[in-house]
Amino acid sequence: MSAEETDLVAAVTDIGGATVDEATKRMMTFLLDHALSRQYNFLGRNGKREFKALKLYEVIYGGLKKNAMTSQITRKDAEKAVSKWLIGARDRGGNRQARQATPQQGL
């Protein structure tokens, strides 16, 4: 890991969180804006980019491992938490309200 990546791991570790999901949410919100988060899913399916292949995923995982509250995390736990956060990207920024306000087609 480069010095920049190590510094970034230290920065996201300081963000904290009491659970894996909370810490992941706080770290991902710190690192990605709404527009960027909508371009990714964990495995890069359905025309989106793959988040798992990014060094940023290793930074998140490293931050979760160094967080005292989440240090027992496995890679599978981290994958599930990051994937869950990315799935919710389309609802952030008021998009859920806008989507619910639009009449559903074909019902």
TrEMBL record:
Domain of life: Eukaryota
PANTHER family, sorted: SI:CH211-262H13.3-RELATED, SI:CH211-262H13.3-RELATED-RELATED
Protein name per the record: DUF4806 domain-containing protein
